[in-house]
Amino acid sequence: MHDLGDLSDQKLLKAFQQGSVAAFEEIHRRYFGRLYAHAFKMLGNAADAQDVVQDVFITLWTKGTAIQLHTGLAGYLYTAVRNRVLNLIEQDKTYRHHLSALARFLDETPVQGSNAADEELLFSLFEAEIDKLPRKMKEVFELRRQGDLSYSEIADQLSLSDHTVKKQIGNAIKLLRDRLVQWKSQLVVIFF
C-alpha cells in the first residue's frame, strides 16, 4: 500500500469511509493547521477557532461514511469551517442583542424616587425570577451569563445541541423580560 501522505484527498476519504482510521488521521494532519488558520483569521480567537475546527473533524468522523462530496474534500472542509464560524458569530450577536435589549428595557422607565435600595430590590427580584426558570433553562442561562461560555461549549458541557442552547437562552430572556414588565408596572404603582 502507498504511504497515506501520497494519496489524493479523494482516495484518502474513500479509505476513511471504508474504515481506515489512519486515513482519517492523515486528513486531520493534512488539514487541521490550514483550517485552524482560516477559522482564526475570521474569529480572531484561538480557542473558538480550535473548537470550530475540532467540531468539523468530529462531524467528519461521525458522519464520514454518509458524506457524499460534490466538491473536493478541501472545499467541503473549508465550507464546513466557514459555516460554523458564521453560526458562532450569529449566536454571539443574538445573545448580545438579547442582553442589550434587556438592559435597555431596564433603563427605559426608571422608577420615580429610585435609590440604591430600590435597585437592590429589583436585582433581588430578577435573581429570584432566574431561580424560577425551568431547571435546564436556568442551567443554560447561568452558564452563558456567568461562565461566558459559547453556545457550542454549553452544548458540549450539557450534551445538548447548539440550537437547543440558543433556544433556551432566548426563551429565558423573553420570560425574564415579560416578568420585568410586570414588576415595573407594579413598582410604579407602589411608588406613586
Automatic annotation (TrEMBL):
User: InterPro entries recorded for this chain?
Assistant: RNA_pol_sigma-70-like, RNA_pol_sigma-70_dom, RNA_pol_sigma70_r2, RNA_pol_sigma70_r4_t2, RNA_pol_sigma_r2, RNA_pol_sigma_r3/r4-like, WH-like_DNA-bd_sf
Write down the Pfam families for this protein, in alphabetical order: Sigma70_r2, Sigma70_r4_2
Q: Give the CC-aspect GO terms.
A: DNA-directed RNA polymerase complex
Recorded superkingdom: Bacteria
What are the alphabetically sorted keywords of the record? DNA-directed RNA polymerase, Sigma factor, Transcription, Transcription regulation
Residue ranges annotated for the RNA polymerase sigma factor 70 region 4 type domain, each copy included: 127-176
Q: Where is the RNA polymerase sigma-70 region domain?
A: 29-91
- Family note: Belongs to the sigma-70 factor family. ECF subfamily.
Q: What is this protein called?
A: DNA-directed RNA polymerase sigma-70 factor
Which species is this UniProt entry from? Dyadobacter endophyticus
